[in-house]
Write a structure and sequence with these properties.
The structure holds two protein chains of two kinds.
Chain A: H1 10-14, H2 32-41, H3 44-61, H4 63-70, H5 112-148, H6 150-165, H7 168-177, E1 182-183, E2 186-187, H8 188-203, H9 205-220, H10 223-230, H11 235-271, H12 283-290, H13 297-325
Antiparallel strand pairs in A: 1-2
Chain B: H1 2-22, H2 46-49, E1 61-65, H3 81-87, E2 95-97, E3 108-110, E4 118-119, E5 125-129, H4 144-153, H5 166-170, E6 192-196, E7 199-203, H6 211-214, E8 243-249, E9 253-258, E10 276-280, H7 285-294, E11 299-300, H8 308-314, H9 318-321, E12 324-325, E13 328-337, H10 347-356, H11 359-365, H12 368-372, E14 373-375, H13 402-412, E15 419-425, H14 429-443, E16 448-454, H15 459-463, H16 467-472, E17 475-483, H17 489-497, H18 515-526, H19 530-547, E18 550-557, E19 560-561, E20 566-567, E21 571-572, E22 577-578, E23 584-585
Parallel strand pairs in B: 1-10, 1-11, 15-16, 15-17
Antiparallel strand pairs in B: 2-3, 4-5, 5-7, 6-7, 8-9, 9-10, 12-19, 13-17, 13-18, 14-18, 20-23, 21-22
Helix pairs in contact in B: 10-13, 11-14, 17-19, 18-19
Classes of the chains: A mainly alpha, B alpha+beta.
Domain ABC transmembrane type-1 (chain A): 120-318
Protein name (chain A): ABC transporter permease
GO biological process, one term (chain A): transmembrane transport
């Protein structure tokens, strides 16, 4: 019959909804997710962001083999690369070259490339897991507030207000400063990472909670919920079978947008010296060391660039995702 | 003793040659640095070995700046080296460091006093005779009463929280004396008294040999009782020196002009060359370096050296480098090895740390050989009177001796190493770098170090200097640094190696808890013969190194820059910076 849909055509690009009106083959039902995916596929910027995100995740997961192949162990000193008087790298451009791809740090000559790759693991780990924590708390409290309404909603709403108004950075600095060496079966940096995940996650849930509450509020009034209720379904059934599946999309979108915020937060804490303990490399920590050597641009630029690219990629991807799920939100 | 200094001097000269060769500077610059100091030929370290650009020309304005605020301009309320140094423009004390370069800068000469103090037979009473013809800026004569009053007013640490408390601890103060403001009627003559207008007598609790060094501190700068305004005196200090305040805006700037009541015949130590001295406060440290390089500012008051950003600019440039000096200052950066924390309670485990440490990496962490310091092999820095350099833990290239460290570990019963925690001040990048270097070096012998950073402001009160915290958290190593208040064994060592100074919190001695050390300290501080006393302090140093409870890192050096158009510049060992009272302008 006639040619199938021309997805690359300008008309289709401008009006993604025309996909639904596609002539030709018998019209088949498409799920919301599927429609969103088709929209997303045509958003080049979001796809690029997504690509970078995937790449970063792969780098984080395979950081050890990557470092083994292209760099030196991230904690290893290379003082032969350092001028003993000025403590700056001997080579030009901060010692950049085949041996040290992004140059070496001043003072102790550690390989910047390896430290950035190793830092990716910490940054993403904390960014992801802290987001998981806030998604869990935010979803549970958001659904409860939105579904039951009344005084429950009031109480949870006020709690969210308190959390949103909380001077989070100040509190996190105080808390991170008193973390003991051992506890909860963990010790040293393992415990610190766990605590950072908890602190960041615990304080950033209200943004998710508000979205979930709003969505639940509107879902609660929808016909299919009424139908389930009139058939005698219990609250638990309705929440898990009717409401939650419809919340997956917004949660996914806002979780994606929360990840870069959390990565930035970890970087700020490390920058202020209350994040992960040295010598474990983190981007924020590298940046704070680099400030002392502002005459040496490469040392500031690379960790800064790593943070910038990661945050930008997640944000672009998250924005694209939101547009795809909810085009009216433009 | 002298010989040791000569050796240190030679080492510096060799270093200077090596460095100037690196910088591409011609070898011709070197002769200018010789003791004659002839002319204004700029050369690296020219003001360390001699007087640079000597001059007797009076007049002109000296422009100085400070990167922070003064702790206090009040002689009874200040405890910074730069303040002791600069203050001599407007105060005079019983004694002072001999002006000028070289090892003699460590010795004290009389200032207000006619001669150095005379101790009694038992070393518990010290008598000073004042010169005649001394006057305050308003023309009233300076008497021994004014000095006694100044000493007594400095006793009150609530009114004057900054000043040193040596005289509070040394003198026999009456029980009910709480300071001249709270208890104005109490007679303090049991501690310090003016027996007549020109005789001042100090009464000490126990024999103490280094009194001449203590009285060079500004607590003995005379203060006229009728002009004393307590905590507000800092705003209008009455001068006893060659300059007096013209204006004084606290926290912003002040200006000094000549004091016509100062009689140069009573003061052979101060040439008093400039007519005017202008001081700006709270100038950004990096900006200050740039202005010093450009010549807009002639004197960097803190005198602790240039910022890291400026080093990268100055050292590679032969012309700029020739304007700098790189002296070793009487300050040790070190790591406390704390014997309370198992397995470091065993001396062999502590020795393993001594052997395993990579001294070169530690030195680099602390700023390298120019801005950081010389690799330290024992506790007392060069420049301390009678210091001897020795090395009980030598290794090839100073990189540490892994085999010896493993032997020590075996002797300690931990052949595979152990784990412990190292504390450092998180807001001090050099100390953090040191902790990282230690972690790498000790890992070579299986000692696993966990690093933990703490805020510097509460480091000694709540963390590394808090006995309970250290024990509970198993802190085995702690980054530390110490500078001397005066350049003899007591002035440098006592506070960090005497175990009887250890309290519950706020300790500066974190790790030396050895009764033999304490015994030697008592012997040394009661010994009135200078040479014998210096020898005893070297014994203390050796004992501490055997105890392996201090791992020395570097004897600090600073990179100082001579201002444009400044004359008569010399590094003074007693001040551990340029001798400010000597300076003049072209």
């Amino acid at each position: 019959m006639t040619a199938p849909l021309d997805v690359s055509g300008s008309a289709a690009e401008a009006h993604p909804e025309s996909v639904l009106a596609g002539a030709g083959k018998a019209i088949q039902g498409r799920s919301l997710t599927r429609i969103a995916w088709m929209r997303l596929r045509r958003d080049k910027v979001a796809l690029a962001g997504g690509g970078v995100v995937v790449l970063l995740i792969l780098v984080a997961i395979f950081s050890s083999p990557i470092i083994a192949a292209f760099g030196h162990p991230p904690l290893e000193f290379h003082q032969d690369q350092i001028d003993p008087a000025t403590l700056l790298p001997k080579g030009t451009f901060g010692g950049m070259g085949g041996e040290y791809l992004l140059g070496v740090e001043p003072v102790n000559g550690r390989d910047i490339f390896s430290r950035i790759v190793a830092g990716a693991w910490i940054s993403l780990l904390i960014g992801f897991l802290a987001t998981v924590v806030s998604v869990i708390i935010g979803t549970v409290l958001g659904v409860i507030a939105g579904y039951f309404g009344g005084w429950v909603d009031q109480v949870i709403g006020r709690i969210m207000d308190v959390f949103l108004a909380f001077p989070l950075l100040v509190f996190a600095i105080a808390l991170a400063g008193v973390i003991p060496d051992q506890g909860f079966g963990l010790e040293g940096n393992g415990l610190r990472i766990a605590m950072l995940i908890f602190i960041i996650g615990f304080f950033s849930w209200p943004s998710i909670g508000r979205i979930v509450r709003g969505q639940t509020l509107s879902l609660r009034e929808r016909e299919f919920v009424d139908a389930a209720k009139s058939l005698g379904a219990r609250n638990g059934y309705i929440i898990f079978r009717e409401v939650l599946p419809n919340l997956v999309a917004p949660i996914l979108v806002y979780a994606t947008l929360l990840i870069p915020t959390n990565i930035l937060f970890e970087a700020s804490l490390s920058f202020l010296g209350v994040g992960i303990n040295p010598p474990t490399p983190t981007w924020g920590g590298m940046l704070s060391e680099a400030v002392r050597f502002y005459t040496l641009p490469h040392f500031v630029i690379f960790p800064g660039l790593a943070i910038f690219i990661t945050v930008l990629a997640f944000n672009l991807f998250g924005d694209g995702l939101r547009d795809a799920f909810d085009p009216r939100a433009h | 003793m002298r010989r040791k200094h000569a050796l240190a001097g030679a080492a510096t000269a060799v270093l200077a040659l090596v460095l100037s060769a690196c910088g591409g500077g011609g070898g011709t610059a070197q002769p200018a640095a010789s003791a004659s100091g002839g002319g204004a030929q700029a050369a690296f370290n020219a003001a360390v070995t001699g007087v640079f650009n000597p001059s007797t020309k009076k007049g002109g304005t000296l422009k100085a700046a400070h990167s922070a605020d003064w702790d206090s301009l009040d002689p009874g309320d200040t405890y910074y080296g730069y303040s002791f140094n600069f203050g001599r423009f407007y105060w005079r004390t019983l004694t002072m460091y001999k002006p000028g370069p070289g090892p003699e800068g460590n010795t004290v000469v009389p200032d207000l006093a006619e001669s150095l103090g005379e101790p009694s037979e038992d070393g518990k009473t010290w008598t000073y005779k004042l010169k005649s013809g001394l006057k305050f800026e308003d023309g009233t004569p300076i008497t021994a009463k004014d000095v006694a009053y100044a000493v007594a007013r400095s006793f009150d640490k609530e009114t004057f929280p900054h000043g040193p408390s040596y005289l509070n601890e040394l003198l026999e103060w009456p029980e009910d004396f709480k300071g001249v403001y709270k208890t104005p009627d109490v007679d303090f003559s049991s501690a310090v008294e003016a027996t007549d207008d020109s005789t001042l007598v100090f009464h000490l609790k126990k024999p103490f040999a280094s009194m001449d060094y203590v009285v060079q501190m500004p607590m003995t700068a005379p203060v006229p009782k009728d002009k004393d305004t307590g905590a507000k005196y800092r705003e209008k200090v009455i001068s006893s020196g060659p300059y007096k305040f013209e204006t004084n805006e606290i926290g912003k700037r002040f200006t000094l002009v000549r004091n016509d009541q100062w009689d140069p015949t009573t003061d052979p130590n101060r040439p008093a060359l400039p007519d005017r001295i202008e001081v700006q406060l709270n100038v950004n440290a990096d900006d200050l370096d740039n202005q010093l390089i450009a010549g807009d500012i002639q004197l960097d008051i803190p005198g602790t050296g240039m910022q890291p950003a400026a080093l990268g600019k100055v050292l590679p440039d032969p012309a700029l480098k020739a304007r700098t000096d790189n002296p070793t200052i009487p300050r040790l950066w070190y790591v406390s090895v704390i014997p309370d924390t198992p397995p470091l309670d065993n001396v062999n485990c502590r020795k393993a740390i001594m052997w395993a440490a990579d001294r070169v990496a530690n030195q680099t962490a602390y700023g390298g050989e120019v801005a950081g310091g010389e690799i330290a092999t024992n506790v007392m820095p060069p420049g301390i009177v009678g210091q001897e350099k020795f090395d009980q833990y030598p290794s090839a290239d100073n990189k540490g001796d892994v085999a010896k460290a493993k032997e020590a570990l075996t002797a300690c019963g931990q052949p595979n190493g152990f784990s412990t925690t190292m504390a450092f001040r998180a807001d001090r990048p050099r100390e953090k770098a040191l902790a990282e270097a230690m972690e790498q070096a000790l890992a070579r012998v299986g000692i696993k170090l966990t690093l933990k950073g703490f805020p510097a402001s509460s480091y000694f009160s709540d963390y590394a200097g808090n006995v309970d915290y250290v024990k509970k958290n198993g802190i085995g190593l702690a980054g530390h640094g110490w500078g001397s208040d005066w350049p003899d064994g007591y002035g440098f060592m006592q506070a960090i190696v005497d175990s009887r100074t250890i309290r519950d919190a706020g300790n500066y001695n974190l790790s030396v808890k050895n009764p033999e050390v304490d015994k030697l300290i008592d012997q040394a501080s009661a010994e009135l013969d200078e040479t014998a006393r210096a020898k005893l302090w070297v014994e203390v140093d050796k004992k501490v190194m055997e105890d392996a409870s201090i791992l020395p890192v570097v004897w600090a050096k600073s990179l100082l820059m001579r201002g444009q158009g400044v004359t008569n510049v010399a590094y003074n060992e007693g001040q551990s910076m340029y001798d400010y009272a000597m300076l003049g302008v072209e």
